[in-house]
Specification:
944 residues; mainly beta; 36% strand
Length: 944
C-alpha cells in the first residue's frame, strides 16, 4: 500500500483540467424494484410448501413466504422436540436488456440481500461461486457473460437453508422469523474498465481525511482529484489533486480547513467526490460518497469518545422488518423508524445484522449512532465463510459516519479468529465488542439488574454498556424501570449507555392465514412500537426520561415565581441552541361544562449551559397564572423539532375541586331513610343504598335508573372489619358514618342537597387498628386503597383529567401528562391484539386523578378526587393468551373493577421485581402514635 500526502490547494471552476463531457460516472440499472411497494415481477418456481411445484410469478424484492410460497418458520423452532425448519428452494428467472454503450465497461450484478445460499447464472453461465449468507450484500463481475444491446437471461437459485451448517447456526437458529428469497434490491453496476472499485475513509474531527482507494487496472501517470461539498450546498470547499502510483490500493491523505464535524446532534455531512484522471488529466471515473468528519475513540477504563467528548448511548435494538414485507423494507420505512427513534430522544441503534443501506444513510443524515453487528445470534460462522462475509460487510458499510463500534456476533455467536480482522478492513480501527460479554475492556452485559453485579459497573473498572437491557415483551420493560436504571447507571463515569430490547413487535402478515399478524406467540412482541409502528405507553416514557433537558422535581404552589431548575443532558449542544414555550390551560370539569382552553402562552428563557451543567429556566408569570389549571412546557431543538412536553397542575386536587363546584342552596334538603337494615341517602333524584350489616354501598339509582356501582368500598392491600354505622343530618346534607377496626378508621358518606355523594375515608391513623386482632396491612404493599364493582359491559369510554393518555405502572409514570383526556373502550392486549391494536389501552391504572367520567348509554357517572396523587384503576387488563409458560406479564390486580389507590405495582421485565430499582419495589407501612394517617376524599356525581 502506498501512502501519499499533499497540501491543500483550491482550483476555480474555470481552471479545471478535466472536462465534464469526458466524465465517467458509475451507472446502475435495477433488475428488481427498490423495496417494499416498488417491485418487479419475475418468474418463480418454489420446491415445497404453498404454491410449489409449478412456475408462477413473484415480486422482487420480497420474502417468498409473504408472496404466498413455501412455509413460515420462526427461528426458535429447535426448542420444539422433533421440529425442523422449512427448507424449500426457489428458482428465479428474469430477462433484461443491457445498454449497448456499456460494452466497453465492467458490469457487475449486485444483490443487496438474499436468503440464504445463492447461485447466479447469466445466459446459462455461472456468475461465480455459490454465495452463502443471507444478511450481507454481494456481487459478481459478469462482463464476459453479457450480450450488450440484446436480451439476457438471469437465473437465480436460492436455498432457504444453507448447505453450510455454520451459516444456519449463525443466521437461522435465532430469535426471529426465518424467511427465504431475494429480499433486497438487485441491480447492474457499470463502471469504466479502469476505475475506482471502492474506498475506505478515515475522516477525523481535525479535518484530516485519509482515503484508502481500491482501484482496478491502474496504469502509470494517473492522478486523483479530491473535492468536498457540504451536503445540501452547491459550492465545493476545495479541490486537491495528487499523482498516483500503479498500485491498486493506495491511501491518499488530505487536510481540510473549517470542517464542520459530525455527531449525533450536528450530523454534518460532505459529499466526497473522487475524480480519477489519466495522464492527460482527462476524467476517467468519478466516485462519490457521503462522509462525515468525526473522531471515534475507545478509552479503556474511561469511555467512548466522539470528537473528544465522552458519549452516552441512549439506544434501542432494531430489526429490519415490516409486517407486509418481512425483511423487505424501503427508504420510507427506514426514515419513519429513524424519526420515531429520534422522537424518543434516542441517539443510537443496534441490530443483529447489517441493515438496509438506506437505514444507515438515514442514521448518517439525522444523527443516530449505529452499532453494526456481524451476524451470529448464538451460533457462529466458520472461519472460511466468516472471513468472506466480514470482508463484504466492511466493504459495504465502512464509510458510514454513524457507525461507532463493530460487534462480532451476539451472545456467543462470535468466531474469535475474526476479531482482529475488523481492523484490517477499517482504517478508523473502531473498537470490536462481543455483546453480552465483558470483552476487550468493554462490558456489554445483557439484561443487568439495577445493581449490576460484582465487579461490573457498581464496583468494576471496565466501561459498561449493556447492548440489551429492559426487555420489552408485551407491556413489560422499555420505559418501565428505565428512570431508576438511568439515574443509577449515569451516576457512574464508566457508563457508556445502553440499548433497549427492542424497537418493534416482529409480527408478520401471514399469507397462509388470511393476512393475520403473527408474532409466533411470545417470541416476537418485544417492541416499544407495534408491527405497524403503533406507539405503546413506554414510547413516551422513554421520550421523557431520555429528553436532553431534565427538570428537577417540583410542585407549583402559591410561592412559584416562574423558575425551573433544569439540567442539560445533551452530549454536544448548549441549551442556547434550543427554545422553550409555555402554555397555560383552563381544564374545566363536567361541573363547569366546558372544554379545555388556552389562557396564556409565551416563551421560557433557557440558560446558556453546556452539557452536564444545571441552571435556571425562567418564565414571566402572566397576571392570570393562578387562574389556570395546567401549565405545559414544550422544548424545541435547534431545528424547531419538539424535544418533549412537560406538565404540572397549577392547583392541588382539593383546591381544583372547590374551584369547579358552584355553591348553590337547594330548597329541599337531602333525606335519610331506613329499609329493613339498609340506610338510604337521597337527594335531587339520586338515591344510594348502604348495607346496615357491613356498611357497603349496595345500590345507586338516578331517577329510578340503576347505576350498577356497588360492592364497595372494599379495602385492598389492607384489612378492616365493620364496627358500626350511624346516620344523621348535617345542615341540608345527609350523612352515613361507618366505623371500622383495622386499617380504616371511618368512612363518612355525605349526600348533598344537590345530589352529590361524598366519600371521606380516614385510614392508617391508629397503630393498633382500633383493637383489630392480627395484621391489618400487607407486609409488602403492591396496592393500597379502596375498590368497587362495576360491570365492564356498561362502559363505552372514559373522559378524565389527570395523567394520560396512557395507563401507568409504578415504575412507568413519566411520559404521561396532565390534561383532559378521552378514549373509547377497548380490550387491547399489549403486543398481542394485532388485529385490533388500539392504543392507549383502556384498562389499567391511571395516574393523579382529578376527575373521571365513565361513559355509558345507561349508567354514566363522574368521580372527583380531593386527594392528591390517587391512581384510578379501571378494570383488569387481560393477560396475553400466548405468554410464555403461562407466566403472567403483570402483577395481579386488586379485587373489584374500579379502584382508588395510593399505591400500585410495578411491571417487570426478565428480572424479578427485587432486582429492579427503588421505584419498582413494593411499599411498606409504619404507623406512629399521633400520625394523621391517610384521608381519601372522593365525590360521585350520578346525575345525568
Amino acid at each position: 500500500m502506498i501512502i501519499k500526502r499533499i497540501k491543500q490547494f483550491f482550483i476555480g471552476a474555470s481552471c479545471l483540467c478535466a472536462t465534464v463531457t469526458n466524465a465517467q460516472n458509475t451507472e446502475t440499472l435495477y433488475l428488481s424494484g427498490t423495496g417494499l411497494g416498488n417491485t418487479v415481477t419475475w418468474d418463480f418456481y418454489c420446491s415445497e410448501g404453498m404454491n410449489s411445484g409449478k412456475w408462477s410469478k413473484i415480486e422482487v424484492p420480497s420474502q417468498w413466504e409473504l408472496q404466498g410460497f413455501g412455509e413460515y418458520t420462526f427461528g426458535r423452532f429447535y426448542l420444539v422436540k422433533g421440529a425442523k425448519p422449512s427448507d424449500e428452494t426457489g428458482l428465479y428467472r428474469y430477462k433484461f436488456k443491457v445498454p449497448a454503450d456499456w460494452e466497453n465497461k465492467q458490469v457487475s450484478i449486485v444483490f443487496e440481500g438474499v436468503m440464504t445460499d445463492t447461485e447466479v447464472k447469466i445466459n446459462n453461465k455461472l456468475a461465480g461461486d455459490i454465495h452463502q449468507g443471507g444478511f450481507i450484500s454481494f456481487n459478481y463481475d459478469i462482463t464476459d457473460k453479457l450480450k450488450f444491446g440484446k436480451s439476457n437471461e438471469l437465473e437465480v437459485k436460492v436455498w432457504k437453508e444453507s448447505a453450510n451448517k455454520s451459516v444456519n447456526a449463525a443466521e437461522r437458529r435465532a430469535d426471529w422469523w426465518l424467511f427465504g428469497g431475494i429480499y433486497r434490491p438487485v441491480y447492474l453496476k457499470a463502471i469504466p474498465k479502469i476505475h475506482i472499485e471502492r474506498i475506505a475513509v478515515n475522516a477525523t474531527a481535525d479535518g484530516k481525511l485519509s482515503t484508502e482507494v481500491h482501484m482496478n487496472n491502474l496504469p502509470k501517470g494517473y492522478s486523483l482529484a479530491t473535492s468536498l461539498t457540504p451536503v445540501g450546498e452547491n459550492k465545493s470547499i476545495g479541490r486537491q489533486t495528487t499523482t498516483l502510483d500503479s498500485g491498486n490500493v493506495q491511501t491518499i491523505s488530505t487536510d481540510w480547513e473549517g470542517i464542520r464535524t459530525w455527531d449525533c446532534e450536528h450530523p454534518n455531512l460532505y459529499l466526497l467526490r473522487l475524480e480519477l484522471l489519466d495522464n492527460q488529466k482527462r476524467l476517467v471515473h468519478i466516485h462519490e460518497e457521503r462522509i462525515g468528519f468525526r473522531t471515534v475513540e475507545f478509552r479503556p477504563k474511561d469511555g467512548i469518545y466522539i470528537n473528544g467528548t465522552k458519549v452516552v448511548m441512549k439506544g434501542v435494538n432494531r430489526h429490519s422488518f415490516h409486517p407486509d414485507g418481512g425483511r423487505t423494507t424501503n427508504k420510507e420505512i427506514s426514515l419513519q423508524d429513524a424519526l420515531l427513534i429520534k422522537e424518543m430522544n434516542m441517539n443510537a441503534v443496534r441490530s443483529h445484522y447489517p441493515p438496509d443501506k438506506h437505514f444507515l444513510d438515514v442514521c448518517d443524515s439525522l444523527g443516530i449512532f449505529y452499532l453494526e453487528e456481524f451476524p451470529g445470534w448464538h451460533g457462529r460462522y466458520d472461519e472460511k465463510v466468516g472471513e468472506k462475509l466480514l470482508k463484504e460487510m466492511m466493504a459495504h458499510d465502512v464509510n458510514h459516519p454513524c457507525i461507532f463500534l463493530w460487534s462480532n456476533g451476539n451472545e456467543g455467536g462470535w468466531n474469535k479468529k475474526l476479531d482482529t480482522r475488523f481492523a484490517d478492513y477499517d482504517p478508523q480501527k473502531r473498537h470490536v465488542i462481543h455483546p453480552w460479554a465483558d470483552f476487550n475492556q468493554l462490558d456489554t452485559h445483557h439484561y443487568p439488574a439495577y445493581q449490576t453485579g460484582t465487579a461490573r459497573l457498581a464496583n468494576g473498572y471496565n466501561v459498561f454498556m449493556p447492548t440489551e437491557f429492559l426487555h420489552g415483551q408485551y407491556d413489560k420493560g422499555l420505559g418501565a424501570g428505565l428512570e431508576d436504571y438511568w439515574s443509577n447507571y449515569t451516576s457512574n463515569p464508566l457508563f457508556a449507555g445502553g440499548f433497549l430490547w427492542t424497537f418493534m413487535d416482529e409480527a408478520v402478515a401471514r399469507s397462509d392465514k388470511g393476512g393475520i399478524l403473527d408474532s409466533d406467540g411470545p417470541n416476537g412482541p418485544d417492541g416499544i412500537v407495534g408491527p405497524r409502528r403503533e406507539k405503546e405507553g413506554s414510547f413516551y416514557t422513554v421520550r421523557e426520561v431520555w429528553a436532553p433537558i431534565q427538570f428537577k422535581n417540583m410542585f407549583i404552589t402559591p410561592s412559584f415565581k416562574g423558575e425551573f431548575a433544569v439540567s442539560n443532558t445533551y452530549l454536544f449542544t448548549n441549551l442556547k441552541e434550543c427554545s422553550m414555550r409555555y402554555r397555560l390551560y383552563a381544564t374545566p370539569s363536567p361541573l363547569k361544562r366546558g372544554q379545555r382552553s388556552l389562557l396564556n402562552e409565551g416563551t421560557v428563557s433557557l440558560p446558556p449551559i453546556d452539557p452536564g451543567e444545571t441552571g435556571k429556566a425562567r418564565m414571566k408569570l402572566p397576571d392570570n397564572f393562578f387562574q389556570g389549571d395546567v401549565l405545559e412546557l414544550e422544548a424545541y431543538d435547534r431545528n424547531g423539532k419538539s424535544i418533549c412536553t412537560w406538565t404540572w397542575p397549577v392547583k392541588y386536587a382539593d383546591e381544583y375541586f372547590k374551584s369547579q363546584r358552584t355553591q348553590s342552596t337547594p330548597a329541599k334538603p337531602a333525606e335519610i331513610r331506613k329499609e329493613n337494615e339498609d340506610i338510604i341517602l337521597s337527594a335531587n333524584g339520586i338515591s344510594v343504598t348502604f348495607s346496615g350489616k357491613d356498611g357497603a354501598l349496595t345500590k345507586v339509582k338516578c331517577n329510578g335508573q340503576v347505576i350498577p356501582l356497588n360492592n364497595g368500598p372494599l379495602p385492598v392491600g389492607i384489612k378492616a372489619d365493620f364496627k358500626k354505622g350511624e346516620s344523621h343530618m348535617e345542615g341540608k346534607d345527609a350523612l352515613f358514618v361507618v366505623k371500622y377496626t383495622g386499617a380504616i378508621d371511618s368512612i363518612v358518606w355525605r349526600m348533598t342537597a344537590d345530589g352529590l355523594l361524598g366519600m371521606d375515608a380516614r385510614m392508617l391513623n391508629r397503630g393498633n387498628g382500633g383493637g383489630y386482632k392480627g395484621e391489618f396491612f400487607d407486609k409488602n404493599i403492591y396496592y393500597l386503597g379502596l375498590s368497587f364493582s362495576f360491570p365492564e359491559k356498561e362502559v363505552k369510554g372514559m373522559r378524565w383529567m389527570g395523567r394520560g393518555p396512557y395507563r401507568v405502572w409504578k415504575n412507568r409514570i413519566k411520559g404521561t401528562n396532565y390534561n383532559i383526556w378521552e378514549k373509547e373502550y377497548n380490550n387491547t392486549i399489549t403486543g398481542e391484539s394485532f388485529e385490533k391494536l388500539i392504543y392507549p389501552e383502556f384498562k389499567g391504572y391511571h395516574g393523579n386523578l382529578y376527575w373521571a367520567t365513565l361513559q355509558s348509554d345507561k349508567a354514566p357517572f363522574t368521580v372527583y378526587s380531593e386527594t392528591d396523587g390517587l391512581y384510578f384503576r379501571v378494570f383488569t387488563p387481560e393477560e396475553p393468551i400466548h405468554r410464555r409458560d403461562g407466566e403472567n406479564s403483570m402483577h395481579s390486580f386488586p379485587e373489584g373493577d374500579l379502584s382508588f389507590l395510593y399505591d400500585i405495582p410495578a411491571i417487570r421485565s426478565f428480572k424479578s421485581i427485587a432486582e429492579h430499582g427503588p421505584k419498582s419495589q413494593p411499599s411498606s407501612i409504619r404507623i406512629k402514635s399521633g400520625d394523621d394517617g391517610l384521608r381519601m376524599k372522593l365525590w360521585f356525581d350520578f346525575r345525568h
